[in-house]
Design goal:
0% helix; five-stranded antiparallel beta sheet
């Protein structure tokens, strides 16, 4: 958990990566008691408590003529990086469902 002293917010890190920039997603509750999810890098923010609102897990394939709620899930999943290295320092990575990253 980290603290934003300027805005008096407590951020809780999640095991999810932003669908825009692949940085870690945080959650927080604002002064009014509303839940939010926010990217730690690009600042993408949505109201709600589920990281899937902005993370790669929630990415959907667009289908022409259908409402977004009906679009199929693209099959990406956020997971902890089992082998953090200098070449791949990210703690959270995105894999396609069915693919897996095994510890080296």
């Amino acid at each position: 958990m980290s603290i934003d002293h300027e805005n008096k917010r407590f951020y809780r890190k999640t095991n999810h990566a932003c669908r825009i920039c692949f940085a870690r997603v945080f959650t927080y509750v604002d002064e009014a008691g509303e839940h939010h999810v926010e990217c730690s890098n690009c600042g993408l923010t949505k109201k709600g408590s589920k990281p899937e609102l902005i993370c790669a897990c929630g990415y959907r394939n667009r289908v022409k003529g259908q409402r977004p709620a009906k679009w199929p899930n693209a099959g990406f999943r956020c997971q902890l990086n089992p082998s953090v290295t200098p070449e791949m320092p990210s703690q959270i990575i995105v894999v396609h469902q069915g693919d897996s990253i095994e510890e080296a």
